[in-house]
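Q: I have 114 residues here and want to know how they pack in 3D. Can you give me a structure?
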Amino acid sequence: MYPDIALQRTRDLIDTDLENGQAGTGTTLPTTTDTALETPIANTENALTSTTSGQSVQTTLVILSAQGNSSTLTEYVDFVNAGTTILNRIVVTGIAKTAAKEITKITTYTYNRG
């Protein structure tokens, strides 16, 4: 059995490695072999902010009003290891991005026994 402190250490290691997030327009469902966004939007890669609590780390990615405009944002990724490895890729219902919209994506990673 892993004690709480081991799960919190895992959380802290991931939190330390978190760097950037990015949006894209790909629509293929995520797989365990994904290594990048399907169709990244270059000007949407921004630094992640994160907070930790218990066995969880929560990341926040903000796509600013001047970024990704005239695109329908459908996929997001969080990067670790200097942007060379993805921690998570998700595909969502598209959001038509305009200068009038700022998008905030919040992801919570929880490390449990299992």
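Q: Anything worth noting?
A: Residues 4-17 form the longest helix (14 residues). Strands lie at 18-24, 46-47, 49-53, 56-63, 71-80, 85-97, 103-110.
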